[in-house]
């Protein structure tokens, strides 16, 4: 795959996630022992179409990214992202959210919430969302998340996120992956966790309060940037998040 993406007036080289970067979270460890260190997926960060768009993004501490996940298998497990949580907003007990939109292909989003932020192996909620082209999916505060491509086509998805933090990968890494693995026969529990509830299957939903509507290119919210304030200051939108899922 070409590791360069043209977007607006810029070209961006990919940050490539390699197989060996993921070795702690791959289910099929027997397969991994003899697998070569191949490229898995491609992240194009901090994209903008015009210099004016970039100025708006930087002023509002927001970032727009695109990720491309080719179809494939990791042994018997479908290809996926490494998975991560987000830290708390400074001066708040609320963690940063994120929003995704499927541009091409189909995505399976796994969202998981810990019972206690200090115990990564006790999960109180797991949400599975299957999303297709144009769908938007919000990852609310407190949820870690993994994206899986279980289709036979490449997945291309975009995200908006606050640019003031770095994602937290260690919590999922030390548990050897998310609460569930998606393999050829379906979802199976990750036995590294002490408690995992049954998963809830939900559909993508529009959030007009945030300007997030299926089929509407969410990049265009750069022209109505206050709609994305929930990404910077989620503590001001707790009522919306509580009724979301």
From TrEMBL:
<keyword id="KW-0413">Isomerase</keyword>
<comment type="pathway">
    <text>Carbohydrate degradation; glycolysis; D-glyceraldehyde 3-phosphate and glycerone phosphate from D-glucose: step 2/4.</text>
</comment>
<dbReference type="InterPro" id="IPR014710">
    <property type="entry name" value="RmlC-like_jellyroll"/>
</dbReference>
<dbReference type="Pfam" id="PF06560">
    <property type="entry name" value="GPI"/>
</dbReference>
<comment type="similarity">
    <text>Belongs to the archaeal-type GPI family.</text>
</comment>
<dbReference type="GO" id="GO:0006096">
    <property type="term" value="P:glycolytic process"/>
</dbReference>
<dbReference type="InterPro" id="IPR011051">
    <property type="entry name" value="RmlC_Cupin_sf"/>
</dbReference>
<feature type="domain" description="Glucose-6-phosphate isomerase prokaryote">
    <location>
        <begin position="18"/>
        <end position="187"/>
    </location>
</feature>
<dbReference type="InterPro" id="IPR010551">
    <property type="entry name" value="G6P_isomerase_prok"/>
</dbReference>
<dbReference type="GO" id="GO:0004347">
    <property type="term" value="F:glucose-6-phosphate isomerase activity"/>
</dbReference>
<dbReference type="GO" id="GO:0005737">
    <property type="term" value="C:cytoplasm"/>
</dbReference>
<keyword id="KW-0324">Glycolysis</keyword>
<keyword id="KW-0312">Gluconeogenesis</keyword>
<protein>
    <recommendedName>
        <fullName>glucose-6-phosphate isomerase</fullName>
        <ecNumber>5.3.1.9</ecNumber>
    </recommendedName>
</protein>
<dbReference type="GO" id="GO:0006094">
    <property type="term" value="P:gluconeogenesis"/>
</dbReference>
